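Methods — Computational structure assignment.
A single polypeptide chain was analysed. Its primary sequence is given first, followed by the predicted tertiary structure written as structure tokens.
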Amino acid sequence: MKNIRYIDKYKRESYSIGEIAKYFGVSITTINNWLKEGRFLGVPGRAKNKTRISENAVWISSTGERFCIKDLIAEAVENEKKRAASSKNEEKNALMEVLSYYEEKYGDTYEKIKNKVSKTSEELRDLSEWRYILERVKSELI
């Protein structure tokens, strides 16, 4: 996630309302409502479209629990990294399943089927997809 962060005069990072909304997974309107409700502690008076929320500010959940913005953002970033790694793993597993399917269907490797002298239109179609999947797997491993 690309962030352009503002560092205030005390060397603390601060975030726009839009950035906070992305990290929290809610709308900008929700963040604005929470600001009006006083659910962010340590946020100075609001200037229209200029509100910055310091990493040291505190957010009060609907249950009354208090969380430091810095900690919530660190958790959100970590969760995003895990999700991205998990998605990549799932994609790799799906590609490997397709490769196994073709090897089982034809009872041999791609190379041997590719070198077969006469091929049906179905085999040609399958070989095309099989080659594509092999290239994807190879590029993932590099």
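Note: The chain is about 60% helix and 10% strand.
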